[in-house]
Design brief:
339 residues; alpha/beta; 2 domains; DNA polymerase, domain 1; two-stranded antiparallel ribbon; 6-stranded mixed β-sheet
Amino acid sequence: MNKFIIVDGSSMLVTSYYGMLPKQILFAKTEEEREKFYPKIMQHNGYYTNAMYTMMRTLEKIQKEQRPTHMLICFDTTRDTFRREMYADYKGNRSETPEPLKQQFGNMENMLMEMGYAVEMSDTYEADDLAGSAAAKYEKEQPTYIITKDHDYLQLVSDDTRLWLIQTKQENADAIMERYGSRYGYQKETMKIPDKAVEVTPSICRSEYDVWPCQIPDLKGIVGDTSDNIPGIKGVSSAAAPLLAEYGTLEEIYRTIDSYPDDKAKKQLTAFWKEELGIKRSPLKAMTEHREEGLLSKQLATIKRDVELSHTFEEMSLSRIDESRRREQLMKYGFQSLL
């Protein structure tokens, strides 16, 4: 049977970069300070290679342990995607990508393509839109897994697609595994999931994050997302989970609010929220005043699942990796230990 793994390449490369940086750079307080130590970053023939080496080692370990038949690696190419057209400040709080990492993005993408991996990129969509579209298209045909550190991908979890969500430390992953082991049949010893990862199912998403996978965009519509500079609705975060448990979606919450015609009737609604849902501080005023921001935030947080991909499923087969070109590329960047 086929086994399909979708990799968030951008997330993996960034994590690989910062995980293999000299301490002087990690602890430096200014960009000027960091630049002084760039020569200490792993290099070969003038190329920075610390992130590429670590990511390549991770990919090969996943292939060896998981035995996938097909793999798709998705990368971001720009922050000026369709979401920035919707909201100019989307990801506006992100700092400039360091030059050593920026260089490795292009080289990593090219190296993987030269070897024969299926690599998806777009100037319009983000890596998660490409991954979401691939999962939606192929998850019914074989077991599908997505590996990333990005919590946005939780919305893609289903009975057919599992998320391998990377944690910052192995002990964090182990703690979550143990928390749900007896309840959901987690067996860490036999599952062989990637290092630092937790395999998220719909039930685990509901237990860990208080909402079902399909409600993740609604949750972000209310609470926002500081990492992507998605505003959400200020002052409502604690009420988000009970409201979504009761009404399902952000739109349904607003339909319910609108069904109460005047202030007197709305007092009955807030009383219900307090007594039945346990919401002590009424979110009604904030929800009403910031309706547009909430609905826009949900839209920004929703991963697209209908993007046309440039590869067929057959072209995602790992049997297409050319061993001679793989060796050639590994030698080019000085990765002899991976040969």
